[in-house]
Structures are given as C-alpha cells and as structure tokens.
Amino acid sequence: MLGEASPAHPSCNMKTFSLFLIVLGFVLSSYSQASDASLRRAIEADNAARAGSGGKLPVLTAAEHLSRAEAYMGNRLFPEAREHWAIYLENYPEDASIPKALFGTARSFMWEREYLKAVEWFDRLVKDHAMTKEGREGLAFKGASYVRAGRNLEAARTYEQYTVMFPKGERIESAYLNIIDAYREAGEYDKADEWIQKAVSDFPGTSTETNALHAKVRMELFRGRWKAAAEAADRMLDVRSFSGSMTSADEGRYLKALAFEKGGKATEARSIFSSLAQSPGSYFGGLAADRIEVAGIRKTGASAPRLVREYPTPFTAALLKHAKKQRVDPRFMLAVMKQESSFRPSAKSPAGARGLVQLVFDTAIKYKDEAGYPDLEPDDLYDPETNIAIGALYIRRIKDEFGGLYEAVAASYNAGEDNAARWLNRTKPRDPGVFAAEVGFAETKNYVFKVMNNYRVYRELYTEDLRQK
C-alpha cells in the first residue's frame, strides 16, 4: 500500500517540505504511468504472440520473459507472471537470473496464500542457490510460509536452520524473534523462553534484546500470567533501547498497566494509564485516556482551522453513499485515504495498489460483482466512485471478519487478512492495545498507529455524517 510521505526533519522548513511533497508526487506519478504502460505492453504483446501460435505463449528471449513477468508481478497478476517464469526456467536453466525467477515464483504463491506450494519453490531455490541473496531470502520466506500455513514447529526449525547457515545474514535478528513467536504459537513456551534468553544474551543492548523482552511480555499476557507480564514489562523498560525496535516506552507502560489491571491492582493500573493519557499524539496515550474516561485530555480542539485543513472530507457524497451502505464509518475510510493516497485518485504504489484507498487488482476483482462493477479493469480503480464503492465493501468484509476491531482492519489492509487473523488469534486479553502489540511487521504496526490516530482526529472533528462539530 502507498503510505504518506515521511515527515520532514525537524530543521526542515515548510517551504522545503512542500517542495519535497511536490517532487515525491511527481516521482510516484511517473512510476505509476511507467508501471501501467509496462503492463499494457506486456498484455498486448502476449495477446499478439498467442494469436500467432494457437493460443500458447512462444519461447521468447530470456530478457523478454523476465521483463513481462516483472510487469505482471508488479501489478499482482500472478498466474501471468508465473507463465513467463515457467517458460524461462525450462528454456534458460543456466541463466544468471534463475534464482530471481525461482524466488518470484515462490513469492507469487505466498501472495495467493498457497503457502505450501510456496514452500516447495523456496526449497528448490535454497537447494540449488543457497549462497545467493535470493537463496538466503528464500529460506527466511520459507519460514514465513510455514507460519502463515499454521505449521509453527516447521517454521521454528526453518528459522533455526537460517541461524546456522547464515549467522551474519541480513535477517539473522528477525530469525531469532520469529523462532520465539513460532514456538509460542505452537504452545512450546519453554522453547520460546530459551530463545528469548538466547536473543538477550547474543544481542545485548540492542533493539533485538528489546524485541525479545517484548515477546516475553506478550507471551505472559497471552497466558494470563499477570505478575510475570508486569515484571517482563519492567525488564523491557529498563533496557531503554527502543530505537529501531518493534515497541516503545509508551507501549511497555500500557501493557504493564493492563497486566496490573487484570491482576487486580486497579490503583497502580490507573496511575500508569493517567500518565500515558498526557502523551499527545501517542496511540497508546489515546487508548489509556479512553480506558479511564479522562474528559478533555485528548481533545484535539475540534474547531481549530488548521486541523480542519489537515483532515479534510473530500468525496463526501461517495463516502456517505457507499460507507453507510456497508455499515463502515466514513471517518475510518477518510483515515485510510489520508494515509494511503493523500486523497489523490491517481495514486499508485510500487505494489500495484491504485486510487484513493489503494486497492490492488487481485483484491478488487473478488468484490467487483457485488459492488456493481462486473467488467472491472485495473485502471478503473483510479475512478473515485469505483474505488470507494469497492473499498467500502472490502473494508466491511474484513471488519465483520475481525469482530469490528478497526485496528485489525487497518493491519489487514496493510499486511493481509491472514497475518491480521494470526495476530488477532494471539490477542489475549482481547484489547486494541494488545492487538497492536502483537502486530509482527514494523511497517504494518506504524501504519496501524497512523490510521488509528487519523481516525481519532476525524471522530473528534466530524460527526458520522461528516458534519463538522
């Protein structure tokens, strides 16, 4: 998905930052046009080639097969990409890009949630090309495929294999953390604890130590061991190495307060929640304020003209029509649109997501008939009405799937339904902050924070009918 531009450095003035946004918009627009043009060329060339060979793709040059496969993969047309890779692999077995084609094929099956098929292709890649970058990546993604298939012990063993084969590999630290979570999800808590201690010992004073202790907090909360969870939170907070980690001091304090609350220490819990509620802009501060119903502390000043300018309500008619029809809060859709596209209908991400709510075509086609667009083409997603209609339907489906928890909807939107479902299954007690803590990708976690903070401001500025308060 296409996120908003990174914030400017504190010393960057507004004029410079505005210029940065203009340049970024130009770059992204140029990328979008080039990607769409590459896709059109690949489709037209394939149609012409099939017409001249009885409907079957002929053998082309290695470079041409790779180029067309990349165009399809970049637009999430996975079977079409695999068709080119298959011809390439059969006819150019000694070519230098074989590892890239094997990796692409395996990844395409991951995107389609065919995880055990992906494992087969990653196995082939690792067996024949282990010492390439794609081979190292392939072993890590094999572990991820097992996790997503619910085969947690196989996942743990795969990541352990990575630590042995590539002790200085690019993903060595994340391998440790994945082992911890895989054993935890398999119910092997003692094994998870062993790897927590190993990570603390092998990576002292680093974000990996912090992440391992964070995993300990999450595991103890899941097990309902409130005293152990609070102690683990204290231990994590004492490390004070949050830069580059998957957690923060605010999160650690929130989880500690929750452990106190569940353990019957209401006074201590309220004290921590009250201190957190004073943190402006903090996702966990907002949750803390909600828990103790602190009136006024988190208010944004709804009448402030600056906030109204920063949080506008474009495409109101389409939002009210389609969001209300799908029982989705239009303010949540605005929060997503602000983060995904900055309200630009022509936005396209490097992952092939298009339009206001950044829909990928393989997702959109699942809902096109129900939304009333049976003849949907990829470029139709640049139309605001079409994008909002299908987006509202998609968001409603995943909202219903996840019990109305908008944090899970945001996580699913960014990282996929299977990942969000796994994180939700790990969420005990069932609390928005615990879910956010369980999100396993740094990018997705940051995305959830941004969308939910946007949503909080929109709720404070506007009614559900998008009238300014």
Strand and helix layout:
Blueprint (H helix, E strand, L loop, with lengths): L13 H38 L10 H13 L3 H14 L6 H14 L3 H15 L3 H16 L3 H14 L6 H14 L3 H14 L4 H16 L3 H14 L9 H14 L3 H11 L6 H10 L12 H6 L5 H10 L4 H11 L20 H11 L12 H18 L4 H10 L1 H9 L6 H7 L3 H20 L8
Name a few traits of the molecule:
mainly alpha; 68% helix; Serine Threonine Protein Phosphatase 5, Tetratricopeptide repeat; 469 residues; disordered N terminus; Lysozyme
Task: Explain briefly what this protein structure is.
Among the domains are: 96-202, Serine Threonine Protein Phosphatase 5, Tetratricopeptide repeat; 305-461, Lysozyme. The protein is 68% helix and 0% strand. It has helices at residues 14-51, 62-74, 78-91, 98-111, 115-129, 133-148, 152-165, 172-185, 189-202, 207-222, 226-239, 249-262, 266-276, 283-292, 305-310, 316-325, 330-340, 361-371, 384-401, 406-415, 417-425, 432-438, 442-461.
Tell me which oligomeric state these chains represent: single chain
CATH topology of the domain at 305-461: Lysozyme
Which class of the domain at 305-461 in CATH terms?
Mainly Alpha
Instruction: State Rg.
Output: 24 Å
* Biggest sheet features: none
Return the string of H and E elements: HHHHHHHHHHHHHHHHHHHHHHH
Number of strands: 0
Helix run count? 23
Structure in words:
With 469 residues, this protein is an all-alpha fold. Among the domains are: 107 residues, Tetratricopeptide repeat domain (Serine Threonine Protein Phosphatase 5, Tetratricopeptide repeat), CATH 1.25.40; 157 residues, Orthogonal Bundle (Lysozyme). α4 runs parallel beside α6 and α17 packs across α23. It starts with 13 loop residues before the first helix and ends in an 8-residue tail after the last helix.
